[in-house]
Amino acid sequence: MPDNFSQAIAQSWTLPFAPTLAVIVAAVLYLRGWRLARATRPLELPPWRAVSFLSGLALFWLALASPLDALGGFLLTAHMTQHLILMSFAPPLIVLGAPTVPLLRGLPRAWVRDDLAPWMNTRAFHGLQEFFTHPAFAWIAMNAAFLGWHTPAAYELALRSPGWHEIEHACFFSTSILFWWFVLEPWPSRNPVSRWAVVPYLMGADLLNTGLSAFLAFGDRIVYPTYAAVPRLFGTTAMNDQIAAGAEMWVLGSIVFWIPLGLTVVQLLSPKRKRLMRMQQQTAAGRRPLPKPIDLLRLPVLGHLLRWRYGRTSLQVVSAAIMGITIWAGFRGSAMSSMNLAGAGVWNIIRPVGLVLILLTANFFCMACPFTLPRELARKLGIAKLRWPQWLRRKWIAAGLLILFFWAYEQFVLWDSPRATAILLLAYIGTALLVDSLFTGGNFCKYVCPVGQFNFAASMLAPAELGMRSKAVCDSCATSDCINGRSGGNQKQRGCELELYMPTKIGNMDCTLCMDCVKACPHDNIGLTLLSPARELGRDPQRSSLGRLSSRTDVAAVSLVLTLAAPINAAYMIGPISSRLGTLEAAHPFAGSNLGSLLFTFALSAVALGLSWLAAKLLQAFTRERLRTVFCRFALAVMPLGLAMWVGHLGFHLAMEMPSIPMVAQATYADLAPGAHGYNMALMGSMATMGSASKPANILLMGGAHGMSLLSLQVLVLDLGLLLALYAGWRTAKDIERSPASGRWLIGLYAVLAVAFYAACVWIFTQPMEMRGMGM
Question: Which SUPFAM superfamilies does the entry link to (predicted)?
């Protein structure tokens, strides 16, 4: 039987007339034209372009003539392989060959001069060319063909009819040529839009590819009935074949999109490229200065509110009122977490929304933080007299408190305990009051507050930054009011209590956006500007109050704790990990005790940090820098991927909680309003089934199309994080490389480590997950 089967496969090779003839003619014309055009354009048409074009033609022919075409009727995996070749491998190789000029030069000269040239110079031809090669049309056409032909009705039609099957292949190949034409921009074409459009162009296509792949890989039924009826090959079932096809399309398809995406971003963010683009823009504009970045403090309404003397205090009062209601609800409200503001509100709503605000607007939460209101009272009473000890001027306390918080989150099931959440908030208030009542300055925010450290690290990717508008004005200033403060009339405006001197301040690290420096500056020389979100990645300047981050092991430890805690926190919720962790915890001598769980958490953290240190040791082999420098630099470089994991995971919480937000608000009102006990009980009855959603459930199976779209968005966020992490690693490697060769090995090793971390995060998102306290 195996010999007969192998013979049948070998005999499945065909010689399709039209595709074979087209490939031969195209190859002959291209080689002839490439040889003629290369005589005058050797730089534009190097040999690798001819190799690329011929390789694309060969893959195109193999997809149609090889046994893949015959096996496609029996195996979805084989059919998806054929589709990948026709859409993701052959077209970009052909486009990389820059086929326009060689194919035209390969035709007989008389044909081009007498027949083609007059038509190609008409307005109609140029209009059609602009329409079909426009990126909007190319993107819509390719993705419409991709999704349309993979609907069950169209797919089954192509399987039944050879004619429609050929039309399907023609649609895939032709639209993919147009799609990749915009991405690769083959000579001599020029794109009509900014090169930055390639980023959403490819990411959007990858999002659709991920959605369809996840639908096939995680579906609970056979999507294409033909594969359930045909004889099975290689001992695989129809469902396993579908899962393998979905995984193949997901992994290989995403790789094909992300390789050119990463290369494009690196090219666009390259300092040489940026200088060249700036020179071109200045030349085109008659050497006029480039537009200044947007300054939020100069906007009519928003700027006035941010600069208002009581602007921050107003935000703090509002957030303090919300926190007071939350604490009251934690002690007196419903014990059902999904109905309590201290449960669902804090962990599933406020936490993810706060993270998104940080990434968009820098430390907005710190600006509105209610925990610093006691500091204001202490300043009014003149209680704070002590200076923060020099030996504590590092972030080790905050790093330890972060690990302690992540342990407490699991140990005391904070997501399902409104009372424990209320106690945690009270402890936070007490700690802030104690520190700020004894010590001058903003020491609680800078050295103690774990939430603040999370915000500081995340805000390094935020586009908003508080900084000086004119260096010349700061150089001429003799009073340094931005840090020392100033007196005016009967009022004294303090300066920055976090000791960030504005002329040397870089980035958002340690900045709480309190606006004290803005109000203290007598020259109105401080602005809140919107800049590139990737500006701090791969840089190591001297920073006010912080020095160089390459020597700050404490800052690197905080960023690594946040990065590694993202997948660990999510992994606690998935079945394969939680069951094994439970078995492991029960096996150690302190099983069942808080001390044992605490020891386990710290041991896990030590192992994770140790592995990170080992990774830094491997990276150090390709540099001349010290191990500490390599550790600190690359710990910050990988942070975007950890933050992306947090956004994807917490965004999942928020998405699951969205339908129940009105009911949580009604339940909170019922808890607060006198005589509303009966109404509250009715709400509890209506949400009884929702509150029990802590059982393991697979959102992909439970949510259907909604679950698929959530997974696609989560993977898209991770893709963004990986892209930024790879860019940061590339910039870091170029900054500390020993030689170009060692730099390539350095970024290659870092890329392998980052992709492995990314793969682990994707795997976590695809696992069955507990719906902790989510009112679904």
Answer: alpha-helical ferredoxin (SSF46548)
